[in-house]
Amino acid sequence: MIAIDGPAGSGKSTVSLKLAKKLNLTFLTTGAFYRGLAFLANKRSIPLDDEGALVRLTHDAGFSVVANSQGTRVLVDGQDVTSQINTEEVGKGASLVSALPTVRAALLESQRGFARGAGLVAEGRDCGTVVFPNAALKIFLTASLESRAHRRSSEYQMPNQETQKALEERDSRDSQRAAAPMAKASDAIEIDTSEMTIDEVVGKIAQIYSERRSKN
């Protein structure tokens, strides 16, 4: 079990997926649950501040998340909507949804269920602190705001200044929310990815993983 946390734009998703493929482990992005829920809420015309309705929506028969070494996919009403939820707009909705304590609690069991397999690389903002506190290896990826904004603006084709402002707001919401705020686990290894390539980060984590396994 490898838990990878960090702020938006630090490279968590890309690094975690490549690492999972390299090590042949299941890749789970916990953010997919919140993005999928925000997407479904919009489809069902449910306000993102209606906590009770959102909790009930977590049990909707049309909502499911599947994962393997090739990635995490979100299914809504029988259709794969993974590509549709990976937008800045859905991300903003996911940030609002993920701040609701009862919604996070309702999704926790489903997220932890993926740890029952042969191996897992899980990424998010509270994987090492809340979802998988007993993970054998915890990594906290970070990067300068400027570096993260550049990556996001390229990914979403947005002006850099606009992206930087959105990231600042996202960081504030994620770190100050009452339920499972984004934080580095006390036993996590921090890696600053500002000046590193994706392959360099993946290689560093894989090396740490290998060293840990050889000692055990």
Structural notes for this entry:
With 216 residues, this protein is of the alpha/beta class. It has one domain: 3-Layer(aba) Sandwich (Rossmann fold), CATH 3.40.50. The protein is built from ten helices and eight strands. The strands form two sheets. It has a five-stranded parallel beta sheet with strand order 2-6-1-7-8. Strand 4 and strand 5 form a beta hairpin. Helix 1 crosses helix 10 and helix 2 crosses helix 5.
**Straight-line N-to-C gap:** 14 Å
The CATH level-2 architecture is identified as: 3-Layer(aba) Sandwich
Number of helices: 10
Looking at CATH, the homologous superfamily is: P-loop containing nucleotide triphosphate hydrolases
**Overall number of strands:** 8
The CATH topology is what? Answer: Rossmann fold
Low-confidence runs of at least 5 consecutive residues: none
The CATH first-level class comes to Alpha Beta
Query: Could you say how many structural domains there are in total?
Result: 1
Q: Look at the structure and give the mean pLDDT.
A: 90
* Strand fraction: 15-25%
Structural class: alpha/beta
Can you lay out the helices and strands and say which pair or pack?
Blueprint: E1 2-5, H1 12-23, E2 26-29, H2 31-43, H3 51-57, E3 63-68, E4 71-76, E5 79-80, H4 82-85, H5 88-97, H6 101-112, E6 120-124, H7 127-131, E7 137-142, H8 145-156, H9 160-176, E8 189-192, H10 198-215
Parallel strand pairs: 1-6, 1-7, 2-6, 7-8
Antiparallel strand pairs: 3-4, 4-5
Helix pairs in contact: 1-10, 2-5, 8-9
